[in-house]
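Write out the 3D structure for:
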Amino acid sequence: MRIKMIGVLVLMLSLVLGCASANKMNAINIGMSEDEVIAAMGAPASTSAVENSKYLRYKLWAGGPFLDDYFVELRNGKVLAYGRVGDFGLGY
């Protein structure tokens, strides 16, 4: 029983510590370069592009039981917009 509890505790801690926190988005500013974003946030979960914009998608933990999608929109290599899916009507 005790070993089982320790295993569950280790699993829970690794899940929490292994997930990047949404607080990292506070380090992003309009006008930053893509390299600066990646230095602050780490590698994105995925990237995509539409017309003149490139999107970096991050899966971040905002305190609930699930990870949320956050995006950084880059145009001409600079941050144009960023936030959680649906924030500000950004179109992603």
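The CA atoms of residues 2 and 86 lie 44 Å apart.
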